[in-house]
Design goal:
288 residues; alpha+beta; 8-stranded mixed β-sheet; 4-stranded antiparallel β-sheet; 12 strands; 26% strand
Length: 288
């Protein structure tokens, strides 16, 4: 669920666990925070330390909090804040938000969430946020979020597709729709070549196709500088790469992949309308 809650109105009735505390995370905690996120299915790369550094480059304020049972990190959340300009009527609609967060080990979420909400409420008053918005990777809203209400708009995709890559390639192909299998094999027949790289020189090729696709399909496109910052940060951490599909020397499709835990995430992409008959995007996604 993608709930939103006014941080000043939250009332949590769960009794506190005196052994649990919340504190700001420092660089010393970096590795064990990322290890916690990678350990379970709910850990999101947008809560990773390197992603928060990337968001700082984009002008966001970043606040990292861990929930501890004595000295053991059992959960936490990275909050992001970007101050919005006041509207004509003098209102400020800035939010404190946590894409992909929070994250907890089993049995610590209820009390841990209470501690994080209390921390967020104090933080909201300091930075001037009017609400707390969280977007954990849950398929079902847990009971401990009963005070949270659904946000009017999703910031992250509300629907996604997961493909189990532990099967053989033959079984993955068999699970596809017939047209999908046909197009993958057609791209192979045409000799579409694919490769994946962390070379920053690939960013212009990726962005040209991304921008072309955004313009054609009329969706919001992040500026070029956004991808410079993103790729520099994520490539250096070895958790992302660009995939390119080429045919007869022309780049026809491009994707940006992020690797986190046991998942590969298709984050951005684009394709050319030239030579559509060779099915370059199918070749690229199959290679990914």
């Amino acid at each position: 669920s993608k709930p939103s809650v006014n941080s000043e109105l939250v009332q949590q009735n769960t009794p506190k666990n005196p052994a649990l505390t919340v504190r700001s995370l420092t660089e010393v905690d970096r590795d064990r925070w990322d290890a916690l996120l990678r350990s379970g299915p709910d850990g999101c790369f947008m809560q990773s330390w390197v992603w928060s550094e990337f968001k700082q480059l984009e002008g966001y304020q970043v606040f990292r909090y861990g929930v501890f049972e004595r000295d053991t990190l059992v959960g936490g959340c990275i909050f992001y804040f970007y101050a919005q300009a006041e509207s004509a009527n003098g209102h400020n609609a800035s939010l404190l938000f946590a894409p992909g967060g929070p994250c907890f080990l089993p049995n610590f979420a209820s009390v841990g969430m209470q501690l994080l909400v209390e921390q967020a409420s104090q933080l909201a008053q300091t930075v001037g946020a009017i609400a707390l918005r969280i977007e954990p990777l849950y398929s079902k809203k847990p009971d401990y979020l009963h005070e949270f209400v659904r946000a009017p708009v999703d910031l992250l995709p509300s629907e996604t597709l997961l493909i189990d890559l532990r099967s053989s390639t033959d079984k993955i192909l068999q699970a596809m729709k017939p047209k999908g299998r046909y197009n993958v094999r057609l791209s192979q027949k045409h000799g579409v070549a694919t490769h994946f790289t962390q070379d920053l020189q690939a960013i212009p090729q990726f962005y040209d196709l991304f921008w072309e696709t955004a313009d054609r399909q009329q969706f919001f496109a992040e500026p070029y500088g956004f991808f410079i910052n993103l790729c520099q940060a994520l490539f250096a951490a070895d958790i992302a790469e660009i995939g390119l599909a080429t045919w007869q020397g022309k780049t026809l499709a491009a994707i940006l992949l992020v690797y986190w835990g046991d998942r590969a995430i298709y984050l951005y992409g684009g394709r050319s309308l030239q030579h559509r008959q060779v099915m370059a995007p199918y070749a690229l996604h199959w290679a990914a």
